Amino acid sequence: MFTNRTPKIFLFLFLFGGFVALSFAQQNAQALFDNANEMLQEGNYQQAISSYQKLEDRNTVSGALFLNMGISYQRIDSLGMAKYYFLKASQFEETEQQAQKALQFVESRFSRQSAVLPKLPWDIATGWLQEHIGAENILLIGIITLNIGVFIFIAHWFLQAYPKVLRIGGLSLIVVALLIIASSFYTQYISERYSKAVMVTEKVSVLAEPAEEASIVSRAYEGYTFTVDHRKSDSRQEWTYVRMSNGLYGWIPNSEILIL
Q1: In the prediction, which pLDDT does 22 show?
Q2: For residue 199, what pLDDT band results from cuts at 50, 70 and 90?
Q3: Is 146 part of any domain?
Q4: Is 2 exposed, middle or buried (0-12, 13-18, 19+ CB in 10 A)?
Q5: Strand order in the sheet with 203-207
Q6: Which of 193, 217, 244 is the C-terminal boundary of a domain?
Q7: Are β-strands 249-253 and 216-221 bridged in parallel, bridged antiparallel, or unpaired?
Protein backbone atom coordinates (compact mmCIF):
# COMPACT_ATOMS: atom_id res chain seq x y z
CA MET A 1 0.00 0.00 0.00
CA PHE A 2 1.33 3.43 -0.93
CA THR A 3 1.25 6.28 1.57
CA ASN A 4 1.71 10.02 1.31
CA ARG A 5 5.39 9.49 2.07
CA THR A 6 5.93 7.15 -0.89
CA PRO A 7 6.61 9.87 -3.53
CA LYS A 8 9.14 11.49 -1.18
CA ILE A 9 10.90 8.16 -0.69
CA PHE A 10 11.10 7.61 -4.47
CA LEU A 11 12.41 11.17 -4.92
CA PHE A 12 15.04 10.60 -2.24
CA LEU A 13 16.15 7.31 -3.81
CA PHE A 14 16.30 8.94 -7.24
CA LEU A 15 18.40 11.86 -6.01
CA PHE A 16 20.62 9.62 -3.92
CA GLY A 17 21.16 7.26 -6.86
CA GLY A 18 22.07 10.18 -9.12
CA PHE A 19 24.52 11.52 -6.56
CA VAL A 20 26.18 8.10 -6.19
CA ALA A 21 26.43 7.69 -9.97
CA LEU A 22 27.93 11.16 -10.37
CA SER A 23 30.41 10.54 -7.56
CA PHE A 24 31.44 7.22 -9.10
CA ALA A 25 31.89 8.82 -12.53
CA GLN A 26 34.10 11.56 -11.06
CA GLN A 27 36.23 9.03 -9.20
CA ASN A 28 36.55 6.89 -12.33
CA ALA A 29 37.59 9.92 -14.39
CA GLN A 30 40.17 10.93 -11.78
CA ALA A 31 41.57 7.39 -11.69
CA LEU A 32 41.85 7.37 -15.50
CA PHE A 33 43.57 10.76 -15.46
CA ASP A 34 46.03 9.65 -12.76
CA ASN A 35 46.80 6.48 -14.70
CA ALA A 36 47.42 8.49 -17.86
CA ASN A 37 49.77 10.80 -15.96
CA GLU A 38 51.76 7.78 -14.76
CA MET A 39 52.08 6.50 -18.32
CA LEU A 40 53.24 9.96 -19.42
CA GLN A 41 55.93 9.98 -16.74
CA GLU A 42 57.03 6.47 -17.72
CA GLY A 43 57.37 7.46 -21.37
CA ASN A 44 54.38 5.47 -22.65
CA TYR A 45 53.14 8.44 -24.65
CA GLN A 46 50.75 6.68 -27.02
CA GLN A 47 49.01 4.90 -24.13
CA ALA A 48 48.81 8.17 -22.20
CA ILE A 49 47.26 9.90 -25.23
CA SER A 50 44.71 7.09 -25.55
CA SER A 51 43.65 7.51 -21.92
CA TYR A 52 43.53 11.30 -22.15
CA GLN A 53 41.45 10.96 -25.32
CA LYS A 54 38.87 8.88 -23.45
CA LEU A 55 38.45 11.71 -20.95
CA GLU A 56 38.13 14.27 -23.74
CA ASP A 57 35.52 12.12 -25.48
CA ARG A 58 33.53 12.08 -22.23
CA ASN A 59 33.86 15.88 -22.07
CA THR A 60 35.71 15.53 -18.75
CA VAL A 61 38.14 18.27 -19.69
CA SER A 62 40.43 20.66 -17.86
CA GLY A 63 43.48 22.78 -18.48
CA ALA A 64 45.69 20.06 -17.00
CA LEU A 65 44.22 17.45 -19.34
CA PHE A 66 44.91 19.52 -22.46
CA LEU A 67 48.36 20.54 -21.21
CA ASN A 68 49.36 16.92 -20.63
CA MET A 69 47.95 15.90 -24.02
CA GLY A 70 50.07 18.60 -25.62
CA ILE A 71 53.16 17.36 -23.79
CA SER A 72 52.45 13.78 -24.89
CA TYR A 73 52.11 14.76 -28.54
CA GLN A 74 55.23 16.91 -28.30
CA ARG A 75 57.22 13.92 -27.00
CA ILE A 76 56.24 11.84 -30.05
CA ASP A 77 57.09 14.80 -32.31
CA SER A 78 53.51 15.40 -33.43
CA LEU A 79 53.93 19.14 -33.16
CA GLY A 80 50.69 20.18 -34.87
CA MET A 81 48.64 18.18 -32.37
CA ALA A 82 50.82 19.52 -29.53
CA LYS A 83 50.16 23.10 -30.62
CA TYR A 84 46.43 22.43 -30.81
CA TYR A 85 46.23 21.11 -27.24
CA PHE A 86 48.56 23.76 -25.83
CA LEU A 87 46.25 26.40 -27.35
CA LYS A 88 43.28 24.71 -25.66
CA ALA A 89 45.20 24.58 -22.36
CA SER A 90 45.98 28.31 -22.65
CA GLN A 91 42.24 29.03 -22.42
CA PHE A 92 42.24 27.86 -18.78
CA GLU A 93 43.55 30.27 -16.15
CA GLU A 94 45.32 27.57 -14.14
CA THR A 95 47.42 26.38 -17.11
CA GLU A 96 47.63 29.54 -19.21
CA GLN A 97 51.23 30.46 -18.38
CA GLN A 98 52.58 26.91 -18.76
CA ALA A 99 50.75 26.49 -22.05
CA GLN A 100 52.11 29.78 -23.41
CA LYS A 101 55.68 28.73 -22.62
CA ALA A 102 55.08 25.35 -24.24
CA LEU A 103 53.64 27.06 -27.33
CA GLN A 104 56.76 29.19 -27.70
CA PHE A 105 58.91 26.06 -27.65
CA VAL A 106 56.70 24.20 -30.13
CA GLU A 107 56.59 27.17 -32.50
CA SER A 108 60.40 27.20 -32.59
CA ARG A 109 60.41 23.54 -33.66
CA PHE A 110 58.35 23.95 -36.84
CA SER A 111 60.46 23.78 -39.98
CA ARG A 112 58.25 26.29 -41.80
CA GLN A 113 56.67 29.45 -40.51
CA SER A 114 53.73 31.24 -42.08
CA ALA A 115 53.75 34.95 -42.89
CA VAL A 116 51.44 36.81 -40.54
CA LEU A 117 49.56 39.97 -41.44
CA PRO A 118 48.94 42.43 -38.61
CA LYS A 119 45.37 42.44 -37.32
CA LEU A 120 43.12 45.42 -37.80
CA PRO A 121 42.40 47.46 -34.63
CA TRP A 122 38.72 46.44 -34.69
CA ASP A 123 39.67 42.77 -34.95
CA ILE A 124 42.02 43.16 -31.99
CA ALA A 125 39.30 44.87 -29.95
CA THR A 126 36.70 42.22 -30.84
CA GLY A 127 39.12 39.41 -29.97
CA TRP A 128 39.88 41.02 -26.61
CA LEU A 129 36.19 41.41 -25.82
CA GLN A 130 35.53 37.75 -26.73
CA GLU A 131 38.38 36.47 -24.58
CA HIS A 132 38.12 38.68 -21.51
CA ILE A 133 34.48 39.78 -21.23
CA GLY A 134 32.19 37.76 -23.47
CA ALA A 135 29.15 38.81 -25.48
CA GLU A 136 26.65 38.07 -22.69
CA ASN A 137 28.51 40.23 -20.16
CA ILE A 138 28.85 43.04 -22.70
CA LEU A 139 25.09 42.89 -23.30
CA LEU A 140 24.45 43.03 -19.54
CA ILE A 141 26.70 46.08 -19.19
CA GLY A 142 24.88 47.73 -22.08
CA ILE A 143 21.43 47.09 -20.56
CA ILE A 144 22.51 48.43 -17.15
CA THR A 145 24.01 51.53 -18.78
CA LEU A 146 20.82 52.01 -20.82
CA ASN A 147 18.66 51.87 -17.70
CA ILE A 148 20.87 54.39 -15.91
CA GLY A 149 20.76 56.69 -18.94
CA VAL A 150 16.97 56.48 -19.17
CA PHE A 151 16.64 57.12 -15.42
CA ILE A 152 18.87 60.22 -15.61
CA PHE A 153 17.04 61.50 -18.69
CA ILE A 154 13.65 61.12 -16.99
CA ALA A 155 15.04 62.77 -13.85
CA HIS A 156 15.61 66.06 -15.68
CA TRP A 157 11.81 66.48 -15.96
CA PHE A 158 11.38 66.39 -12.19
CA LEU A 159 14.55 67.95 -10.78
CA GLN A 160 14.93 71.70 -10.91
CA ALA A 161 18.72 71.62 -10.47
CA TYR A 162 20.81 71.18 -13.62
CA PRO A 163 18.02 69.94 -15.94
CA LYS A 164 20.13 70.55 -19.04
CA VAL A 165 23.08 68.61 -17.62
CA LEU A 166 20.82 65.71 -16.68
CA ARG A 167 19.18 65.68 -20.12
CA ILE A 168 22.48 65.73 -22.01
CA GLY A 169 24.05 63.24 -19.61
CA GLY A 170 21.10 60.87 -19.90
CA LEU A 171 21.06 61.04 -23.70
CA SER A 172 24.83 60.49 -23.82
CA LEU A 173 24.55 57.38 -21.65
CA ILE A 174 21.72 56.07 -23.82
CA VAL A 175 23.84 56.47 -26.94
CA VAL A 176 26.83 54.79 -25.25
CA ALA A 177 24.58 51.97 -24.05
CA LEU A 178 23.23 51.36 -27.56
CA LEU A 179 26.79 51.21 -28.89
CA ILE A 180 27.73 48.70 -26.17
CA ILE A 181 24.68 46.56 -26.96
CA ALA A 182 25.50 46.68 -30.68
CA SER A 183 29.08 45.58 -29.94
CA SER A 184 27.76 42.65 -27.89
CA PHE A 185 25.68 41.42 -30.83
CA TYR A 186 28.63 41.87 -33.19
CA THR A 187 30.96 40.01 -30.81
CA GLN A 188 28.45 37.15 -30.58
CA TYR A 189 28.14 37.06 -34.37
CA ILE A 190 31.92 36.91 -34.80
CA SER A 191 32.33 34.16 -32.18
CA GLU A 192 29.64 32.03 -33.85
CA ARG A 193 30.80 32.55 -37.44
CA TYR A 194 34.59 32.33 -37.02
CA SER A 195 36.89 29.95 -35.14
CA LYS A 196 40.61 29.35 -34.95
CA ALA A 197 42.05 26.12 -36.35
CA VAL A 198 45.46 24.43 -36.40
CA MET A 199 47.01 22.39 -39.20
CA VAL A 200 47.88 18.96 -37.73
CA THR A 201 49.14 17.10 -40.83
CA GLU A 202 52.46 17.56 -42.60
CA LYS A 203 51.32 19.65 -45.56
CA VAL A 204 48.28 20.40 -47.70
CA SER A 205 47.29 22.55 -50.64
CA VAL A 206 44.87 25.38 -50.01
CA LEU A 207 42.52 25.35 -53.00
CA ALA A 208 40.41 28.01 -54.68
CA GLU A 209 37.37 25.70 -54.73
CA PRO A 210 36.27 22.71 -52.59
CA ALA A 211 37.46 20.16 -55.15
CA GLU A 212 40.71 18.24 -55.54
CA GLU A 213 41.17 19.42 -59.13
CA ALA A 214 40.78 23.11 -58.20
CA SER A 215 43.66 25.56 -58.60
CA ILE A 216 46.11 25.94 -55.72
CA VAL A 217 45.97 29.19 -53.75
CA SER A 218 48.85 28.38 -51.40
CA ARG A 219 50.57 25.62 -49.44
CA ALA A 220 50.03 25.05 -45.73
CA TYR A 221 52.25 23.11 -43.36
CA GLU A 222 52.01 21.55 -39.92
CA GLY A 223 51.38 24.11 -37.21
CA TYR A 224 49.87 26.77 -39.47
CA THR A 225 46.86 28.51 -37.96
CA PHE A 226 43.71 29.49 -39.83
CA THR A 227 40.52 31.41 -39.29
CA VAL A 228 37.58 29.15 -40.16
CA ASP A 229 34.49 30.71 -41.73
CA HIS A 230 31.70 28.41 -40.51
CA ARG A 231 28.99 30.03 -42.63
CA LYS A 232 30.80 29.28 -45.88
CA SER A 233 32.16 25.93 -44.66
CA ASP A 234 28.65 24.66 -43.89
CA SER A 235 27.95 24.53 -47.62
CA ARG A 236 30.46 21.68 -48.06
CA GLN A 237 30.54 18.61 -45.81
CA GLU A 238 34.15 17.47 -46.26
CA TRP A 239 35.79 20.85 -46.80
CA THR A 240 36.54 23.90 -44.67
CA TYR A 241 36.80 27.48 -45.89
CA VAL A 242 39.70 29.23 -44.18
CA ARG A 243 41.62 32.47 -44.05
CA MET A 244 45.35 31.92 -43.72
CA SER A 245 47.46 34.12 -41.45
CA ASN A 246 49.00 35.69 -44.59
CA GLY A 247 45.56 36.93 -45.67
CA LEU A 248 44.82 34.38 -48.41
CA TYR A 249 41.49 32.50 -48.53
CA GLY A 250 40.78 28.99 -49.71
CA TRP A 251 39.44 25.50 -49.06
CA ILE A 252 41.14 22.57 -47.32
CA PRO A 253 39.86 19.10 -46.35
CA ASN A 254 38.39 18.81 -42.85
CA SER A 255 40.83 16.03 -41.97
CA GLU A 256 43.83 18.34 -42.20
CA ILE A 257 42.91 20.67 -39.33
CA LEU A 258 41.47 20.72 -35.83
CA ILE A 259 39.14 23.57 -34.88
CA LEU A 260 39.50 25.16 -31.46
Answers
A1: 38
A2: very high
A3: yes
A4: exposed
A5: 216-221, 203-207, 249-253, 239-244, 225-229, 194-199, 257-259
A6: 193
A7: unpaired
